[in-house]
Specification:
Helix content is 19%, strand content 34%.
């Protein structure tokens, strides 16, 4: 179902509505083809003379659960609030499909380096390096592992033969460091999950990457792409408040209107989708520190000496998912005398991929185009 509108109304409670739409959000109208890029505290000049690279990490992070919250109006003495939360959940994520997308994009990245006249170290040579083996043993995890970020939950895929490993947390900022344990894990995932995603983790990772780069005589390359599938909003409004005296000669009346809207909009997320370069000449063995205050700040990661990221979303499609309302309800709606009400409303919205074949083709096109744009910026082409 591409569009549905629901409403409910409660005395001393809530009127709730959920709109499910395929319309693009207004800010997304400019998204569609790769365009703007941004360098994170670095520049293309820092890559002058690079002729050989080793791709140590390639990750496509597919969002499987999104969330939106609205902290509303509170009357503490009456225990009244109009907080609202909305969750959209991709119910049928196919790991085989997502693995193939990651494999194809990785092959395209290597081909693009070759087209630029840059040698790519063979994966077998990289994985045989002793320091790389140490890095994987301390920070590696399986392709298809569950992941958390500020938008909700996701699954992380690397190409076959090149499993992902944890980035150094202090280089990431807040986006990849916000797990939401209330969201259920996606699907029947049995992959080996990262064990320390929220901790400072292995501070040696930047130094290990530099050592690998030196040993291989190459610049270390890491690519990370975040794929969002929906755009959510949540809202509420309190009205019709009537207060009676303390003797209980009446009842407080509060009407709360809740709303949630979900749109299908598959896109590569700006700033978090990036290619990072760790130079063999780097002196930053302790890595970089990304600003992470306040907690709502989603700064671009700086997990390399040079980081080039997407400066705006890259649209993949606005018609790729169908949405239906899942189970939802207001907590504490019933039996509230004297206005003693905690009326938070939560919406659950289930998403289903419409056409896996079309999704795969469009994802491949978006990733190939984004990679070409990022590398052309990095090497000033």
């Amino acid at each position: 179902m591409s569009s549905v509108n629901l409403s409910r109304r409660y005395l001393l409670g809530a009127a709730a509505g959920c709109a499910l739409s395929t319309a693009l959000p207004s800010w997304a109208q400019a998204a569609g083809t790769p365009g703007a890029t941004l360098f994170v505290d670095s520049s293309a000049a820092d890559l002058t003379g690079v002729k050989r690279v080793a791709i140590s990490a390639f990750v496509v992070e597919f969002q499987t659960a999104d969330k939106a919250t609205k902290d509303g109006f509170h009357i503490a003495s009456l225990h009244i609030s109009d907080d609202t939360a909305a969750y959209s959940r991709w119910q049928d994520a196919d790991s085989t499909l997502l693995q193939k997308i990651a494999d194809d994009a990785y092959a395209a990245l290597k081909a693009r380096f070759t087209a630029l006249g840059i040698e790519v170290v063979d994966t077998a040579v990289l994985t045989a390096d002793p320091t790389y083996k140490t890095l994987q043993s301390k920070a590696g995890f399986d392709s298809g592992a569950n992941w958390d970020n500020a938008d909700g939950q996701s699954v992380v895929f690397g190409p076959m033969g090149l499993p992902p490993y944890m980035p150094y947390a202090l280089e990431l900022g807040n986006y990849e460091c916000n797990p939401n344990p209330k969201l259920s894990k996606a699907g029947d995932n049995v992959a080996r999950n990262p064990s320390h995603r929220m901790q400072v983790g292995n501070w040696q990772i930047p130094g290990w990457e530099i050592d690998i780069a030196k040993a291989l005589g190459a610049t270390l390359v890491k690519a990370w792409y975040v794929v969002n599938f929906s755009e959510l909003s949540a809202g509420s409004k309190i009205s019709d408040m009537t207060f009676f005296d303390d003797l209980g000669s009446g009842m407080s009346g509060v009407t709360t209107a809740y709303s949630a809207e979900a749109r299908s909009f598959v896109r590569l997320r700006q700033e978090q989708s990036r290619i990072s370069f760790r130079l063999p000449t780097s002196a930053k063995k302790m890595g970089y520190k990304v600003k992470n205050y306040p907690g709502t700040l989603m700064a671009a990661p700086k997990d390399g000496d040079v980081v080039v990221a997407l400066g705006k979303p890259v649209g993949v499609g606005a018609d790729m998912y169908s949405f239906v309302e899942g189970s939802s309800g207001a907590k504490g709606v019933g039996g509230a005398l004297m206005g003693m009400l905690n009326s938070k409303q939560t919406f659950y919205i289930d998403a289903t991929l419409n056409d896996p074949t079309a999704y795969s083709a469009r994802m491949r096109g978006a990733l190939v185009g984004a990679q070409q744009t990022l590398l052309d910026a990095a090497f000033a082409r």
